[in-house]
Model the fold of this input.
Amino acid sequence: MFGLRRNRPNPAQVAETHRDNLRKLLEHRIEVARANGDNELVRRLEAEADSLK
Done:
C-alpha cells in the first residue's frame, strides 16, 4: 500500500482550514443578525468569534 500517505492532507493545514471556515461562517451569521436587528445574537456570535482567536 505504498503511495497512500502522499494523498493525505497535513493535519495542521486541515485544522487551519477548519478554523478559517468557522470564522467565515460566523462573520456571515453576524452580518445576517445585524441586518435583522438581532443585537443579542450579534453579541453572542461576536463572543464566539473572539473565542476562536
